[in-house]
Automatic annotation (TrEMBL):
Alphabetical list of InterPro entries matching this protein: Archaeal_FAD_synthase, Cyt_trans-like, Rossmann-like_a/b/a_fold
Domain called Cytidyltransferase-like: residue spans: 6-101
Protein name: Glycerol-3-phosphate cytidylyltransferase
Taxonomic superkingdom: Bacteria
């Protein structure tokens, strides 16, 4: 049995996540997701999760490509998981191909295959956040415009009386 693992925040589970999980699952018999736990502090230098770990866990649990979810807090935990679980493949987004990342050296030394998943889409948690923010701003602007029209109509009605 080929066991694979993929690590991430999986905030606001979206199409890009699902495609990566599907791609990973197609290349192994059993897929473990290492889920970064702490959404209340900064997870990376530029990213703070919008959803709690429980919300993210439940969404992943409902994904048919995921066989097991193991929460982790730190890069040390990530390394411990790689060292203690019988992993055959580590799935990492292709954007990390030229970067150093936690577990890379261990996988190379131990013969764990590193598989770079393709980023075939424009979806990301950040783009989803921006889209929602834009829609909310549009909605507020529309409400403001309607209120202004109503106010002007009322003022005009008073003048005509």
């Amino acid at each position: 049995m080929v066991i694979g693992i993929i690590f991430g925040i999986f905030d606001m589970l979206h199409v890009g996540h699902i495609v990566a999980l599907q791609e990973a699952k197609q290349q192994c018999d059993y897929l473990i997701v290492g889920l970064k736990t702490d959404s209340n502090t900064q997870l990376t230098e530029e990213y703070v999760a919008a959803q709690t770990m429980v919300e993210r866990f439940i969404k992943l649990e409902g994904c048919k490509f995921v066989d097991e979810i193991i929460p982790y807090e730190s890069e040390d935990d990530l390394s411990d998981m790689l060292q203690s679980l019988p992993i055959h493949k580590l799935f990492v987004s292709e954007e990390y191909k030229t970067l150093d990342f936690a577990g890379r050296d261990f996988c190379i030394a131990e013969g764990i295959e590193i598989v770079y998943t393709k980023r075939k889409n424009r979806f990301s948690s950040q783009s989803l956040r921006e889209m929602v923010s834009e829609k909310e701003l549009q909605k507020k602007q529309n409400i403001f415009a309607v209120e202004k029209i109503q106010s002007n109509a009322q003022a005009l009605h008073k003048i005509r009386q």
